[in-house]
Amino acid sequence: MLPTRTDVLVIGAGPTGLTVAASLCAQGRDVTVVDSQAAGDNTSRAAVVHARTLEVLEPLGVSGRLAGQGIHAPRFTIRDRDRVLVPVEFDDLPTAYPYTLMISQAETERTLLERLEELGGRVARPYTLESLTQDGEEVTAVMTDGSTVRAKYAVGADGMHSTVREQAGIGFTGGQYGESFSLADVRLSGGVPDDEVVLYFSPAGLVVVAPLPGGIHRIVATVDAAPAVPDAAFVQALLDGRGPQRERAVVREVLWGSRFRVHHRVADTYRAGRVVLAGDAAHVHSPAGGQGMNTGIQDATALGEALGAALRGEEGAVDAYAAARRPVAEQVVAFAGRLTGLATTPRRLRPVRNLVLRTLARVPAFRRSLAWRLSGLVYRG
């Protein structure tokens, strides 16, 4: 049963929604989280937790738990087949987390949910939002089963197709990439590292190969028409056409696969009265660089603090959240778009692109700037 009243109603129990709720519970606030799924999502796209995300999760007591479960990858490389175009090292960054943490989003969600429950919170399932209205004092949410919850604030953490954003009348400006994306978790042998994230550039499109715990690799690739469920032959063709050549990467088993299309959009505003957006409800973009979930979690920690302040009477804190986080989303969308554009450079321009990247890679300041951008440390403060 849902309560009839709560301080904050969070719609969506993905990483963003769970983090907002945990932050508020840690401040002693009454929070209600609802999600339309009967259980947590056990298959997911995100597999990267960057340094800045681990930093902002520290106050919630989550960072150490996550770091103990995943693979610490201190290096990210952009390659054209076997040739390294740009090496990016994280191990000299000024942070307690000088690496990219490779961990399934399912594990990240499980860890965040455990922490939320330890703090006294819970997720009510399955409840689907039907309508959302507000006045100057509170928000009223009606679920499809007729349940009604009144809250001082409502958070839309319900993804790209956000009902909260739609009900609040907030626009979602941007477009859609022409390619679809294929995603698979596979067991590999051969020429791929097990402690490094590799972004392979190819005229046929990009392919990202990233290690996960348990001897698994996550494969993400742009494809004109991706199959609904990629099989071993399809993933093998992607790696043969775009991945390493000197030592072939061989697909031994496909554990899970999917396809999706990606938009590049940012919400016109993050706040409409007592309704606030975070995560994919507020911004979506290419998966290049692994920024999506990380930006959402960083939204969430900032929003949790802002809502806590607003509930103490500091109303301007929510506006400050919106003013600070929306420009970050615009930067992330632009950065991911640039990486995707570089990866899909036409064949005739590929030598020029490679020459430019190799030249830039000789400049330490360029490599360091890229490390700060990928790690999210550039968004400190």
Question: Can you give a write-up of this model?
Answer:
There is one protein chain. The protein has 381 residues and is of the alpha+beta class. It folds into two domains: 5-43 and 104-171 and 268-343, FAD/NAD(P)-binding domain (3-Layer(bba) Sandwich), CATH 3.50.50; 175-262, D-Amino Acid Oxidase, subunit A, domain 2 (D-Amino Acid Oxidase, Chain A, domain 2, 2-Layer Sandwich). It is 33% helix and 31% strand. The protein is built from ten helices and 19 strands. It has helices at residues 15-26, 51-57, 63-67, 105-118, 163-168, 232-242, 292-311, 316-343, 350-361, 364-375, and strands spanning 5-11, 31-34, 48-49, 71-73, 75-80, 83-89, 100-102, 123-124, 129-134, 139-143, 148-156, 172-190, 196-200, 207-212, 216-223, 249-267, 271-272, 275-277, 283-284. The strands form three sheets. Strands 1, 2, 8, 9, 10, 11, 17 and 18 form an eight-stranded mixed β-sheet that branches. β1, α1 (15-26) and β2 form a beta-alpha-beta unit. α1 runs parallel beside α4 (105-118), α2 runs parallel beside α7 and α7 runs antiparallel to α8 (316-343). The longest helix is centred in the last third of the chain and has 28 residues, at 316-343. The chain starts with a strand and ends in a 6-residue tail after the last helix. The mean pLDDT is 92.
